[in-house]
Amino acid sequence: MSDQKTVDKMNGLINNVLGKHEEVLTDFLDPGERDILKKIAGTEVCLQSFGGYLNAEKKRVYITEDWDTIAPSSYQVTVFNVEYPQKFACLSHSAILGSLANAGIETSTFGDIITDGNGKWQFFAKSELKDFFQNEINHIGKTKVRIRPSLNQKVILADDESEMLTAIVSSLRLDAVLASITHESRQQIKTYISNNLVKLNWHSVKDFNIMVDEDDILSLRHFGRCKITDISTTRKGKHKVVYKIWQTKRRNHRN
Q: Structure pTM?
């Protein structure tokens, strides 16, 4: 969804709360969408969010006119276990995401997909879709699975599957940093940016000249995302960029 579409959608939700004096529970929103909602909301309405567990990335937001303590159960988020023969098969985040996204539902109806790093997988979704997930999803790729709500909403301890890596770059421009991280050419990165495949801090960007800073989050569709954790200058005047990366899938990089 483009930022302008998001702005229009969030404006509509807030207008519903103020005009109809009704509480609104949103779909799952990513941090960029929640950032837009927060900016539009200002002090007009109250926002509270929950995604099923403490460090959730995608969350549902309760929009109310006045402050009210919202119980976790009110967000109607269910955690689902992905049951499969762990001895004979391996699942991946991208495979589960692909199966959910291709099941005929909007991606905003489900939240994070997490693993404990030892074969257990869970995802969070709207509670009203319990029957859908249990009845309609029986394969992840070629692996046969059963989707079941977690007993007592028990959530596994999530392993974030990230790596800490370092890149040496001559410039902190967005295209230069992303080219080094992905092992693609700067020209290819510029093409990705032009095609709206790159986000900076969860927002679409069109300018490859933007300077990257510490704590920035860069993402490239189908590659993954990374968080810049440290930037320092080398003795030769280049920039050492330390970043934490979550890759969507392993790709064969051109070195």
A: 0.82
